[in-house]
Specification:
It is a single chain. The chain starts with 8 loop residues before the first helix and ends with a helix. Helix 3 packs antiparallel against helix 4 (52-58) and helix 7 packs parallel to helix 8. The chain contains 14 helices and eight strands. It has 318 residues and is of the alpha/beta class. Strand 2, helix 6 (99-115) and strand 3 form a beta-alpha-beta unit. It has an eight-stranded parallel beta sheet with strand order 1-2-3-4-5-6-7-8.
Length: 318
């Protein structure tokens, strides 16, 4: 599938008022926040921690000089959620290169969900290079603290093998604790950009088969894995989120994917505070992505599942 730029007049106009649109509370299953120290000076914060890849991806500018993403705080996220009718956000960690940074973000997220249990849930990040004991302890501590999953993880970006023994134990433990694991996926046909790392799609199918009791969430429509490989459609422990969709595909992806894979295996996700519509917006917001989903032509029942019901099931939300 080729990369498509969003140019739909429908998106420029904003959300429609059609009576057929669902009124269920929306769950955004793919949101990133960073500690206040990172927001104040992202480049310096990353340099101090040796997070070169994160800095390359998140502090770069577009050709017009505008940043690729913002660095929102919790209050800014809640305002964006309110504007788009999003009731709950799942805070995702990052595929940090250093175990110490993963631990720092987990502490920050623990504070976030304590302060806003009605609006925020969180997934923990972990790095196998922490060692077997510390890595598994991090998963258990996160579970005890009320985290609902793991991720966003990326073996390919975190510089460890897909079959790393500690990573394997982390995935197995996540299955035991019923904590879904979100994995970053790069579409093999996506255009080049600074920091782009190949993520062979066959690796994700192999992980799903090796750990059948673990639920995997493949980010960014999973690089449309099930559209490329029909056998992947049989992997019942794999679901997909829609994070960064407008930067990767045209609006037709919603119907095409759902018609092939099924709405019950799709989670609404934004990748906030990434600016999804840089040609239309100066800063990241969530309204347009909700509008894109609502105007995709999907039936109301399918949208209800994508917006809320599937996330409640996958993350075990009350």
């Amino acid at each position: 599938m080729s990369v498509a730029h969003v140019s739909s007049d429908l998106l420029v106009a904003g959300p429609s008022k059609s009576r057929d649109f669902p009124s269920v509370p929306i769950v955004d299953s793919h949101v990133h926040l960073y500690p206040p120290e990172a927001n104040r000076d992202p480049a310096a914060w990353a340099a101090e921690r040796g997070e070169v890849h994160w800095a390359t991806l998140c502090t770069r500018q577009r050709k017009d000089g505008r940043p690729v993403q913002g660095f929102s705080n919790v209050a800014g996220l809640l305002r964006a959620m309110d504007a788009a009718g999003i009731g709950r956000a799942i805070l995702l960690g990052w595929y940090w290169e250093k175990p110490e940074t993963a631990a720092e973000q987990n502490r920050f997220y623990a504070a976030c969900i304590r302060e806003h249990p009605d609006r925020l849930s969180a997934c923990a990040t972990v790095h196998p290079n922490a060692g077997r004991g510390p890595a598994l302890d991090a998963v258990r501590r996160a579970h005890e603290a009320g985290f609902v999953g793991l991720g966003e993880l990326s073996p390919h970006s975190q510089h460890h093998a897909i079959d790393d023994p500690t990573f394997a134990e982390v995935l197995a433990l996540a299955g035991e604790l019923k904590m879904p694991v979100n994995l970053h996926v790069t579409d093999p046909e996506s255009r080049p950009f600074p920091g782009r790392i190949e993520t062979p799609l066959e690796d994700f199918a192999a992980l799903a088969r090796r750990f059948p009791t673990t639920t995997f969430i493949l980010a960014h429509w999973g690089g449309v894995l099930p559209l490329r490989d029909p056998t992947a459609r049989e992997l019942g422990n794999v679901v997909y989120d829609t994070a960064a969709s407008p930067l990767l595909y045209g609006p037709e992806i919603w119907r095409r994917f759902v018609e092939t894979v099924g709405a019950e295996r799709v989670l609404f996700g934004s990748d906030f505070p990434l600016n999804l519509y840089p040609r239309l917006e100066l800063e990241a917001e969530l309204v347009r992505l909700v509008a894109e989903a609502k105007t995709s032509g999907l039936p109301t029942g399918s949208l209800n599942g994508i917006f809320e019901r599937n996330a409640v099931r996958v993350f075990g939300l009350a």
